[in-house]
Amino acid sequence: MVAAGPSTNSVTDPLRYGRALGYGVRLLACDGTEDGRIVEELGDAATADHIAVLVPGNDNYLGNYFNQKRATRPRANAQTLLATMREVAPGERVAVVVWVGYRTPRGFGEAVSRRPALEGARDLVRLTRFLPRSARVTLVGHSYGTVVCGLALGQGRVSDCVALGSPGMGVRSRQELGFSGNLWAALGPSDWIRFFPRGHVGEIGHGPSPMRSGYGARVFETGDIRGHCSYYRQGSESVRNIARIALGRYEEVTPVVVAAPRRPLGEFTGEAVVS
User: Fold this and answer.
1) Does 265 score more than 50 pLDDT?
2) Which residue from 62, 159, 169, 204 has the highest number of Cβ atoms inside 10 Å of its Cβ?
């Protein structure tokens, strides 16, 4: 998490959702400031049966949204996910919404606070209510974006929530999410976020990881992705599983298989040990 862009500590006005063209793309909302928020629609969400809403983490804002040099920019991730959803289910009507609809934290210092997520969650809830009621809506949060998703779940109209590389979801337990839908989680094999502090005091800290045993999330396989920002890598098992979840094809999602711990040779188990 490297500091970039202006500070995000100011309170923002609610986004106004509606369909419009701007910056050469289809917008659902945009506040038009350099440090501001943008919500883009890929595909036709108005007629889609399945809509994935991507909620990114730190250091994303209108000023760098269209920067082609950012290989992991949310827009590129959304394009990869949309293409994967169409590949998995070519006959389905699908759409992806890129929701940079909150003032994202800049750097680690702001990322430990839930304040940006608390402010952004309200607008994320409003987006889920703006989208057509006939569609299945899946929130896909990455990093700090999973905190925003967690704080929005209790009031949003959402079928599934996917937490990728989560520092915690802004609550102390699954019950505090107030969400009866399907919660999914994934953590890449070399994602450093596993070392993020798990405290929760006042507005500081985001609580336990949804990957924790007993949290209640369904953990899925990511394959051999690297680092913290590769969950949408084209062709990866990670992005294929995200697409399967967004399409409601749960039986096709590959779960993480946890191997049973090996007992030392000769340990008494009630069974004979063959040497």
Assistant:
1) no
2) 169
Rounded CA separation 72/95 (Å) = 19
Helix (H), strand (E) at residue 147: helix 145-152
Average pLDDT of the segment spanning 182-192: 97
Tell me the per-residue pLDDT of 26-78, one tens digit each, with 9 for 90 and over.
999 999 877 899 999 999 999 999 999 999 999 999 999 999 888 779 999 99
Inside any domain, residue 200: yes
Give the CATH number, domain containing residue 233.
Answer: 3.40.50.1820
CA distances to 84, 119, 193 from 77, rounded to whole Å, are 11, 24, 19
Beta pairing class for 50-55 and 38-43: unpaired
Structural domains of the chain, count: 1
Owning domain of residue 120: 20-252
Q: Report CA torsion sign: 18, 21, 23, 24.
A: positive
DSSP string covering 204-233? B---S-TTSTTS--EEB---S--SSS-TT-
In a domain, 8, yes or no: no
Q: Does residue 9 fall inside a structural domain?
A: no
Q: Give domain status of residue 264, yes or no.
A: no
Alpha carbon distance 127, 97 (integer Å) = 10
Spell out the residues 6+ positions from residue 262 whose beta carbon is closer than 8 angstroms to its own. none
